[in-house]
Fold each of these.
Amino acid sequence: MAISQNYGTGRRKSCTARVFLRPGTGKVTVNGRTEENYFPNAVLRMVVHQPLVLAELDGKFDLVVSVSGGGPAGQASAIRMGLSRALLGYNDQLKSMLRQAGLLTRDPRMKERKKPGQMGARRRFQFSKR
């Protein structure tokens, strides 16, 4: 028996999320852990569910997510983008709604590289006149 599922990849900062959308009851599994266990912050859980709430499909799908790299906020945003792309595979008519909400746009902001002769990207070593 083949499982009907939709897949989407999301990226943000240095995070990559692979999201599998399966028909179910609204259970979210992130890297083998429950959503409440992985994201103790309620705001990050809200960010993850944003595409489903917008499309009025919250509680109709189970999410199986594999995410790597970065921190909690970047991972939540990467999952949100992957979920939005997976929803497009489920129903292509959601595209204009998700696009208007800005959920299909990849956030291009990345960490600025460290420059030679400086402590960091912009922080310089302390200047000494003498």
Note: The beta strands are 6-12, 15-23, 28-30, 33-34, 61-68.
Amino acid sequence: MSDSGNQSCLTGAEDTVSVLVCFFHAWEEWAGLGQEDYLSVLEYLLWVFTPGHCLHCALPHRHPSLPFYTRKNQLREAYCNNLWDGARKTLATLWDGHGAIWHGYEIHGMEKIPDEGPALIVYYHGAIPIDYYYFLANVIIQKGRTCHSVADHFLFKIPGFKLLLEVFSVIHGPQEECVRALRNGHLLGISPGGVREALFSDETYPLLWGKRRGFAQVAIDSQVPVIPMFTQNVREGFRSLGTLRFYRWVYERFRLPIAPVYGGFPVKFRTFLGDPIPYDPNINAAELAEKVQQAVQSLIDQHQQIPGSILRALLERFRTKHKGH
């Protein structure tokens, strides 16, 4: 809908409902959803939040031509087979929908994630790693796999989070547990920068890995490839005030991640997966860590304009090309 179309729509609106309809049509075009797509989304979300999914297992499938038909069918089967698998896929679907609508989320290089077998995914950590949640959702939806993840200890201390972390195979990161997950054939995601990178990196996207080599040793001990990952504009979605000296001092002194985070801006997110770095028995952990850091830095250099700009990232929602293509 053009600006003149929106203006005429609002001019002709005589009540609150009409105004809301006009705003809906404007949002529909901005989000890239046609009328049939939106109706499919509504039907799908209503189905997701309707209790007793397994009661519908024997019902005939309707509207096979709708965009979300396949996804809905997969969820129905997941709930019928396993409650937790159904819950996991439902949350993944909701995250995927949120990413598509709010950030126009794209993922490039998904074919580099193996359909089976282990791999270590190493990524840059945004102020809030919402891009990583979108990535996990895509792994579940596109690959039918659950990617194990390493998270900071403080997440396990948040009341009510324990069950959610268990359902999504989140671990607190001892090397032995990471190696065990990979040797069992799972995918594993880790950010060497962790909380420090989340809070104290900024719109210039510095990697704050220090001398961390544990992740590299895990890859060597497990004899698995390492896949670098970076999301364009992740710092423009959420910003941290951790660059202020006080918050840095509190974290370094007490390990309290209290630096305020602000944002939630609907900027364009594109996740890029680099070429896998294969297992090489002839290099040590320090050399592999340096190699992986260079690979992630290369993705940043190729796909992120420095310094990041919130306004520019918002405008990229309306562009089809991106840096590096």
Note: The chain has two domains: 1-31, 106-318.
Amino acid sequence: MTVIESTTELNVPVEKVYTFLADLSNHKQLMPENIYNWSATEDEASFTIQNMAKLAIKISNRIENKELTAIPTEKPPFDVELKWTVADNGKGGTIAKHIISADLNMMMKMLAAGPLQKLADHQTKALSAAIG
């Protein structure tokens, strides 16, 4: 399992960050330009990654003000889990971490690990811009 992480610190309370992330329709604001055909509800989202694949995800687990996990609803090119964790930074703000876990063989890891890291980094940076 390949695990890709990106972390950001926000001067916003955990509850506000969690509430934003808990609604998948808000995640469009976190996506890079190569994502299109975006469609989402609070619990599900589908989109196309340019030159790659169409992906549909749903929230599979929620722990209020702590973590959210999303998994594919249709068979993806590889098994993947998208998780956000939020924790108080001790100063009234939030440490948000985006964790992408993907079951990649050696060939897929060489092709996909870089773009997945770029995606995770883009999303944490966009989260800061959207609500930080």
Note: DSSP finds two helices and seven strands in the chain.
Amino acid sequence: MNVNDVMVTDVASCSPQTSLQDIAMLMWNSDCGAIPLVDENNHPVGIVTDRDIAMGAALQHRPLWEIRGEEITNGRELYCCGPDDTVQQALELMEQHEVRRLPVINQSSQLSGMVSLGDIVSFTGTERLRKHGNKHISSKETMEFLRHVSAHHQSHKAAATL
């Protein structure tokens, strides 16, 4: 199964200069937990999650309307996948970099969708076999991924004690 079989193609995005308040409202209105930041050519340059908004406000002691998306994502590497990548490749990339969402880019490196942990989980097991032919994701693979990504990470614990 490929990423294009499970990805969401109707993706809300915004510029890096967008305020966290506007990004939070975009998340609310789009019913999502992450918004990709794109440049003028629709190339992803970052991603802001709902957790990023909460931590950005808490750590910067500034109102959300004063903090720009680029301030949260600046210096953080962005990981993307392609629509023709296998779901297994996307899972491995997510697991390796401890992320739960990946922007999907086309051959021109433009945003063409998003794939998330939830998208992949919805195709896990056999309940979807009738709807999608023989395409499914192994429950074992998904559980291993969930176990790794959902675990507490030492780097976050160390930062919390500073």
Note: The chain has one domain: 3-160.
